[in-house]
Amino acid sequence: MNPNLDRLQPYPFEKLRALFDGIAPPAGLKPIRLSIGEPQHPTPGFIRQTLADNLGGLATYPTTLGSDALRGAIARWLERRYGLPWIDPAVQVVPVNGSREALFAFAQCVVDGSRPGARVASPNPFYQIYEGAALLAGAEPVFLNTLPQDGFAYDFDAVPDATWRDVQLVYVCSPGNPTGHVLGLDEWKRLFELSDLHGFVIAADECYSEIYFDDGARPIGGLEAAWRLGRTDFRNVVMFSSLSKRSNVPGMRSGFVAGDARILAEFLRYRTYHGCAMNPAVQAASVAAWNDEEHVAENRRLYREKFARIVPMLKPWLATDVPDAGFYLWAGVPQGLPDTDFARRLQAEYNVTVLPGSYLAREAHGINPGAGFVRIALVADTHECVEAAERLIAFCQKL
């Protein structure tokens, strides 16, 4: 067996199950699950219908590169969304079965684990796939703590040059999971400078990009930042996006990677052997989803409504605020109470599930930057989220 498998930590939800072992929540309170970032808004009817109308495609093997129609729809969406003048769907877009599998596979393609000291950098706290991908590619993780006193921004200059020299891949997540931080143009500029200096590839995880609260301040994407800063070839930059959060179709497993054509050519070659072509019916439904913005605007409206209701309720009790974007509240628990104790007691006494922040981070530079926080996913409907907030307040009042 690959010895690096033994280096993988239990996934956060495995830890959560162990934390809750032996708990019997009050039978009179229905469970409210705010721990997992699974969109629960209804899937738009036109997407479901398009999927049903194209089941004949199941009789054929799909190509790894996907259909011209799908790549064209993604390219045109990128141009509309980020103001890019031209994305070549033939060489700058590759469809993938959701961003999760692609984020993992990308490291296996990009990282040369045979090089002594190979490293992969990521934010901390972070989406756990980054760490697993690094370890199984034969690299050592490098963690960039994102802290509340810095507005959860990346401090790239905190990493010594001697470490950067060994970094082959940098994951960034914008909007961030779990903090909601959106990289600004200055952060992108510094990251591009470091990439030019040290030669690493940037993997920009942008699957929350369409859940934002101000139409006049949409999150900047990695390709948009590259273009605005004169990197019109997107050198060493690849972005990852998905329909899961944007269109409420996590079960379709549909996303894409886009950017540096040179890197994508190698990633496509890897994927041809990996065997992960997208279902033809899913491709057709994805074309319909990428071509429509009305349902996305309605989705944003629902999240905005929830945050407008929930944040004022919780702010007097938990250290939290509306994030830059995304559907998570990254909430500081009352001082002196471990986040694991907070989550366990909340589950036991009020049947509300949240995720301890320490499960989403690793100790780096002497601290675990997720400790003292919980991640609250406002994915349920407004009524259920309000009920959860009321239970959270009742719990905090008892502490």
TrEMBL record:
Matching entries from Pfam families are given as:
Aminotran_1_2
Enzyme Commission number(s) from the entry? 2.6.1.17
Cofactors needed by this protein, per the record, are: pyridoxal 5'-phosphate
- Top-level EC class as recorded in UniProt: transferase
Keywords, alphabetical: Aminotransferase, Transferase
Q: Which domain of life is it from?
A: Bacteria
Molecular functions per Gene Ontology: succinyldiaminopimelate transaminase activity
Where does the Aminotransferase class I/classII large domain lie? 32-392
Task: Output this protein's name.
Answer: Succinyldiaminopimelate transaminase
Say which species the protein is native to: Thauera sinica
